[in-house]
Amino acid sequence: MTLRVKGLRKIYRMGNERVHALAGVDLEIAGNEFVAIMGASGSGKSTLMNILGCLDRPTAGAYELNDRPTHKMRSGLLAQIRNEEIGFVFQSFELLPRASALKNVQLPLQYSRHYFTSSRSRAKMALERVGLGDRMGHKPNQMSGGQRQRVAIARALVNRPSILLADEPTGNLDSSTSNDILKLFHELHDEGQTIIMVTHEEDVAGHADRIIRLRDGKVMSDCSTSDDPIHRAYMQRAAEVMAHRAEAGT
Ligand code: ADP
Ligand code: MG
C-alpha cells in the first residue's frame, strides 16, 4: 500500500465564511498505480494534491503514506517525508530561471545527506533519464516548454520518490509536446513509479489506468479508466468525430 486516506476534510476560513474544499474523502492508492484526478475548477483537486504531497495538512481525517500517519506528524518530519517520498510536477514548471538545468535538478538534494558526494551525478542521471543529457548547462529561458517540463520531472525524480504527483502537467503544453510528456510518464510507470496526475482533459486522463472524479470536495466516482462511463462516452464521441472526418475526406 502506498497511500490511504480516510475521512479527509479541508476547511478554509475566509472571514466569516468556511469553504469546505475537501468534504470527506476516502481513497487507497497502491504502489505502481497510474491515477488521474479529474473534476471541475474548485472541486478540490489541488487541495487534495497538496495534502497527498505533504505540502499541507488536513483539517480532519487521516492520511497514511507508506503506512506512516502523516496527519500526526510535526512539520519538520512532514517536510522530511515530503523530501524523501514525493516528487511534485506543476503546470507552470516552477524552475529557478537563472540556474542551469543541472542546478535545478540538484536542488531537492541539497537537504540530503548525499549532497556533497553524489548530487551532481544523480542529477545528471535524472536529466539523462528524461532525454536531456545534452542540455544540462542550459537555463530555462534557453529551453522549450516541453524541455522545461522534462527538467521539472527530472527534479521530481532525483530523490527517487515513491509517488510522482503532477498537477496539470501538460496544461501549458501543445498536444504533441503533451504526448511526449505522457510517453515519459508511461515509461516511468513501466519502471514501477506510482503516478497521480490532475488533469481536466479526458484524452490526458485516458493515459491513466484509473480515474478519480471529484465534485464539491467529495469523490463522485472512482473506477478503472476502461469502466468509467464519462470517459467511455468521450472516447466514443471522439471516434465518431474521427470517422466523420475520414468520411468527409478532411
Ligand atoms: P481545484 O484545484 O479543483 O480547482 P482547489 O483545491 O484549488 O480546487 O479549491 C477548492 C476550493 O477551495 C475552492 O472553492 C477554492 O476557492 C478554495 N480554496 C483553495 N485554496 C484556498 C485558500 N488558500 N484559501 C481559501 N480558499 C481556498
Ligand atoms: Mg487546481
| Tally of DSSP helical segments | 8
Question: What is the approximate shape?
Answer: globular
Number of extended strands: 10
Mean pLDDT: 94
The helix content, as a percent range, equals 25-40%
* Classification by helices and strands: alpha/beta
Can you tell me the CATH class? Answer: Alpha Beta
Radius of gyration: 19 Å
Q: What's the N-to-C terminus distance?
A: 48 Å
Uncertain segments of ≥5 residues (pLDDT<50)? none
Strand order of the largest sheet: 6-7-8-3-9-10
Index terms:
250 residues; alpha/beta; Rossmann fold; 6-stranded mixed sheet; 4-stranded antiparallel sheet; binds adenosine-5'-diphosphate; binds magnesium ion
Give an overview of the whole structure.
- This protein has a single domain (32-57, 78-249), classed as P-loop containing nucleotide triphosphate hydrolases (Rossmann fold).
- Helix 4 (115-129) packs across helix 5.
- It has helices at 45-52, 75-85, 101-106, 115-129, 145-157, 175-190, 202-205, 229-248, and strands at 3-14, 17-29, 34-38, 60-65, 68-69, 86-90, 163-167, 194-198, 210-215, 218-224.
- The mean pLDDT is 94.
- It has 8 helices and 10 strands.
- It is globular and about 60 Å long.
- The strands form 2 sheets. A 6-stranded mixed sheet has the order 6-7-8-3-9-10, sandwiched between helices. A 4-stranded antiparallel sheet has the order 2-1-4-5, covered by helices on one side.
- It is α/β, with parallel strands linked by helices and 250 residues long.
- The protein binds adenosine-5'-diphosphate and magnesium ion.
- Magnesium ion binds at residues 45-46.
- Adenosine-5'-diphosphate binds at residues 12, 14, 19, 21, 39, 41-47.
